[in-house]
Amino acid sequence: MSRLMLGDCVQIMSRFPDTAVDFILTDPPYLVNYRDRSGRSIAGDKNAEWLQPACNEMFRVLKPDSLMVSFYGWNRVDTFVAAWKKAGFRIVGHLVFAKTYASKSAFVSYQHESAYLLAKGRPTLPANPLPDVLPWKYTGNRHHPNEKPVSSLRPLIESFSMPGGIVLDPFAGSASTCVAAALSRRRFVGIELLPHYHAAGLRRLSAVQRAMLHPAANDEIPEAA
User: Fold this and answer.
1) What is the pTM of this model?
2) What share of the chain is helix, strand, coil (3-state, %, to 5)?
3) Burial call 24-50: b when 16+ CB within 10 Å, e when fewer
4) Is 112 exposed, middle or buried, given 0-12, 13-18 or 19+ CB atoms closer than 10 A?
5) Would residue 44 be called left, alpha or beta, if left means φ above 0 and alpha means ψ between -120 and 50 degrees?
6) Residues 28-78: pLDDT tens digits?
7) pLDDT per residue as tens digits for the range 98-133
8) What does the alpha-carbon distance between residue 57 and residue 164 come to, in Å, rounded to a whole number?
9) What is the architecture, at CATH level 2, of domain 3-213?
């Protein structure tokens, strides 16, 4: 059964049984107190008090010999890496998503996103490994100020989990991971703290699931309905 849940991810994950999920794909707050041009913000982005408890729970609920992909704030990388390692994860890869546009400019023009590939135990190597540089499609951030493109998430899910497996995103935002999992024929559990992003995610999932159940001839299933 797939669900997008509303609430605090540490509290919700604490009720999950051990080793319950097959793959974790998540985009946690970057710890930069982010606010976009329209004033939208992200819960938990001001301090890291949630980070270690969340990492501990993610490690506990992930099956042995399985993988997690986590985006992170590049200027807080030391904080994220320390929390992952303390929880028990090993770093086994790094992913870069190349943009065709700049999301911000300072000393340099920011034209990529990045994520770490983390292992619990010794996962089996994929038969056809993904390249560590992948394309990125601009979403317009319609549903969330840091909305990740479904087209960039699907290859991760399809490479690092099996059909029918359970994909967990404890920081689900507007449910891009859940949409990607549904399109990839995986079950999913998403958790989002803020009600307005949770509601946006439910709307997206409903639209995508309707399109999957009743596809019109030659119509493309929407990635961000």
Assistant:
1) 0.92
2) 30, 25, 45
3) bbbbbbbbeeeeeeeeeebebbeebeb
4) middle
5) left
6) 999 888 777 777 778 778 899 999 999 999 999 999 999 999 999 999 999
7) 998 888 888 999 899 999 999 999 999 998 999 999
8) 22
9) 3-Layer(aba) Sandwich (3.40)
